[in-house]
Amino acid sequence: ELAFLMEPDDIIAVRDRPLMLNCQVEGEGPITITWRRNGVPVAVGVRTAVLANGTLLIRNFSKRRESNETDAGEYECAAQNRYGMLISRKARVQLASLPRFLSHPQSLMVDEGGVARLSCQVRGVPEANITWQRDQQTLSTDDPRYTLLPNGVLQITGVQRSDSGFFRCVASNIANVRFSHEAQLSVTGSRIYKEPVILSGPQNLTINIHQTAILECIATGNPRPIVSWSRLDGRSIGVEGVQVLGTGNLMISDATLQHSGVYVCSANRPGSRSRRTAQGRLVVQAPPEFVQWPQSVSRPTGGSAVFSCTATGVPEPHLIWLKNGKLLIPGGNVKLTNGNT
């Protein structure tokens, strides 16, 4: 028999650096291990080698701009002995990158005591870490009036004249460092009565189980509105793993399937029934997980063999069967019942 001790993991590679993908197998020898990328065998040569323990070594991970060729893709290892072939999970290998900003912060004018919201957007692989600078000096977020959300949003509450200046985003990851355009924050002295306004409400968000969800809600008005949260279905949001960031952003840590739902942010003017609301849907997904695995069996010629396999996940996983690494299609003496047997 054959069994994997270690399968390749999804990984992010850096251009011009070595990359190793693990594949360790146990079983009766001799065992031959080969690798495929996007279904095509990986040629062993000067740049690529399969080590004695089955690990694939790419000595110089590359992407050639002129031909758009790249070592990125889906990798799988195949282990074979005299009993058959076993195919590993597909490992997604991405090239680290940090393209230019998709959006830059915009200049704005805010009343003293009001609320400022600056944002930028960049898509990096891996996800970029975003910090902010004011007048090209790193902005300290020790001041509780400053809230920096992971998606690159900077919120400033109770704006003061000393907050004026030129702001820009700094995005960085293992591939690069980039600076956004500058935006000017101007603070005016007028403080007149204003009804509550939600500057930015929660967006629809899909995350995986155990990840952290941050639902934004920032409101302005005079007097300053009070922000509160509820669920549209009336269920309690709960307190475990739930906290408020800044003056109204909802953070749910270690999310579970029960956290899925529509969340409503309300901005209320103190001492009155005047309020504004905004809502967003949170979807928590769970990756496929096997509950029941097929067991090895021995049967005489002409007998019947039954293999069962059950998996859970959100959304519900789709099951396929492989025989010696090749897709098994029902027909003839092969029957599939209930999608899993």
What can you tell me about this protein's structure?
- This protein is mostly beta strands.
- It has four domains: 2-95, Immunoglobulins (Immunoglobulin-like, Sandwich), CATH 2.60.40.10; 108-188, Immunoglobulins (Immunoglobulin-like, Sandwich); 194-285, Immunoglobulins (Immunoglobulin-like, Sandwich); 293-327, no CATH class.
- Helices cover 0% and strands 46% of the residues.
- The protein has strands at residues 2-6, 11-13, 19-21, 24-27, 32-37, 40-41, 48-50, 56-58, 63-64, 69-70, 73-81, 84-87, 91-95, 108-111, 116-118, 129-134, 137-138, 146-148, 154-156, 165-172, 177-179, 183-188, 194-200, 205-208, 213-215, 218-222, 226-231, 242-245, 249-252, 261-268, 275-292, 310-314, 322-323, 326-327.
- Strands 2, 5, 6, 11, 12 and 13 form a six-stranded mixed sheet that branches. Strands 14, 16, 17, 20, 21 and 22 form a six-stranded mixed sheet that branches. Strands 24, 27, 30, 31 and 32 form a five-stranded mixed sheet that branches.
- The protein is elongated and about 90 Å long.
- The chain starts with a strand and ends in a 14-residue tail after the last strand.
- Keywords: Disulfide bond, Immunoglobulin domain, Membrane, Repeat, Transmembrane, Transmembrane helix.
- It is found in: Membrane.
- It is a single-pass membrane protein.
- Belongs to the immunoglobulin superfamily. DCC family.
- Residues 1-94, 99-186, 196-283, 288-341 form the Ig-like domain.
What descriptors fit this protein?
341 residues; mainly beta; Immunoglobulin-like; 6-stranded mixed sheet; 0% helix; Ig-like_dom
